[in-house]
Amino acid sequence: MKLDELIEYLDYKDLINFKNIDITGISYNSKTTKKGDIFICLVGEHTDGHEYAQMAIDAGAAALLVERKIENTKIPQVVVSSTRYKIADIADRFYSSPSKGINLIGITGTNGKTTVTHLIQKIFEENGQKCALIGTLGYKLSSNGEYRDAKHTTPQAPELQATLRMIKDVEKIDNVVMEVSSHALDQNRVGGCRFNGAVLTNLTQDHLDYHITMDNYFKAKAILFENLKEDCFAVINADDDYAEKFLSVVPENVRKFTYGVKNNADIMAKDINFSLNGAEFTLVENGNEHKVNLHMNGMFSVYNVLAAVTTSLAIGINIQTALKALENVHGVAGRFEVVVKKPLVIVDYAHTPDGLENVLKSAREITPTDGKLICLFGCGGDRDATKRPKMGAIAERLADKIIITSDNPRSEDPQVIITDIIAGLKSINTENVIVEPDRGTAIALIKTIARNNDVVVIAGKGHEDYQILKDRTIHFDDREEARKVFEGSVI
Predict the structure, then answer these.
(1) In a 3-state reduction of DSSP, which class is residue 255?
(2) How far is CA 127 from the centre of its chain?
(3) Which of 246, 240, 283 is nearest to 262 (CA)?
(4) For 365-390, what is each residue's pLDDT tens digit?
């Protein structure tokens, strides 16, 4: 693509050394820049891409997208107010706006995004339609396919647009359901994407190290709904505290749908029961009632199913088809995943106060009356520290015993993080509260305190197979560790 074509609709401030050269790729990492690329000098929290411009030029960059002039170079420079914002416009243009030809559905919220995307993918396939998925676990082209690494919950714009183009042109798939994180919305990673629908799971405390306030967090999530076009749809959790605020930002002529359990909504669940086999409830839509039997468990699973069913109705899929698909789902990797039978050991990705509360309440529902509920968890380093004591208080209130350990401490001292968690406890009774900074040792301790009729929740990492330490990242998988400890009792 010629440079003038690439920047034709770009709101740039200045052009330096302009020549109408061929651009054959987009890069924002000087180490991976190839000959013919336009190099985007991204300005982030910790790095400034302008400092690596010469390295990119040496690697073959043909042009630069900059916020300030790079001296001593003769290659073209396109000056914009924000490279972090404009990279999406460049990527969308370079890949010829692939989302225009795709039925693209965005799922946002603090918890539940991954599960809801998988459920919607299953519903499409039950309806005889192909659907690709993009999210936390990577991207995959069918529910039975392999995940391919996507690096972020929502990839950076060039990777995202390239993936969408591949899905459309190479794989011939017209439906895509995608997790859309608050970071991606705030940083405009999904700029240029034309969403046909947007779904809200919930909004509870998370990422305040980045957003600072819940109002900023809401505003970031709201971008997905504010940008919906006429005849698109919005699906909102009516029970969420922010439901009315989200509904208020949806443009006119966008179809609105709600779901819930407590508040009046278009799609509702009642008569909800939980057992070791899963959840069952009655789904109510437009005065009609449908019995639902899930292999998944917990109230959060009920909400996730309601979100998926409501989305399927918004896109015109028969409710019986949707329910048939969902009743055959046995769960998503690392989401309330049972990995050991006796004691019942559940691994879950819950790493926020709301997420931990939901998973512990769900685990309590299936804890035998003569059994104990044990919770092992930690909090991530270099992340929102205010949620640490809150999660400590939640674990103490809802579990009979808690094991406090590390969870991706990153550059922080694990003991400092643990001290922050302990600050939320009312008391530190060594019978009920165990502190073990080494996560592997902490999981091994479960065998010494858990009886066969107990339920154990290992929270925080879910599907992750690594632990991020101060100086390195190591392989670590909660599911593998638990199976090793309880070898002979695994699923």
Answers:
(1) strand
(2) 25
(3) 240
(4) 999 999 999 999 999 999 999 999 99
124: amino acid identity, one letter: F
Query: Closest Cα to residue 421, out of 329, 335, 351?
Result: 351
**Helices 439-449/478-485 angle, 10° precision:** 40
Q: Is the pTM of this model over 0.70?
A: yes
- Asked if 24 and 37 count as a contact pair (C-beta separation under 8 A), the reply is yes
What are all long-range contacts of 266-269, with beta carbons under 8 Å and residues at least 24 apart? 266/310, 267/306, 267/309, 267/310, 267/313, 268/306, 269/302, 269/305, 269/306
**Neighbouring residues of 58: CB distance < 8 A, sequence distance ≥ 6:** none
For the chain, list the domains and their CATH numbers.
Answer: 3-94 (3.40.1390.10), 98-327 (3.40.1190.10), 337-485 (3.90.190.20)
Please check whether residue 10 is in contact with residue 80, taking contact to mean a CB–CB distance below 8 angstroms. yes
Task: Assess contact for 330 and 295: CB atoms under 8 A.
Answer: yes
Quote the tokens at residue 466.
């690594």
- Phi first, then psi: give them for residue 53, nearest 5 degrees: -60, -45
CA dist 145 and 139 (Å) reads 9
Contact 16, 27 (CB under 8 A): no
C-beta of residue 367 within 8 angstroms of C-beta of residue 450 = no
For 365, phi then psi, to 5°, come to: -60, -30
> What number of CA atoms fall less than 13 Å from residue 298's CA on the CB side?
26
User: CA–CA separation, 288 vs 158, rounded Å?
Assistant: 45
Residue 348, number of CB atoms within 10 A of its CB: 27
What tens digit of pLDDT does each residue of 200-222 get? Answer: 999 876 655 555 687 888 999 99
Q: Give me the phi and psi of 232, to 5 degrees please.
A: -80, 180
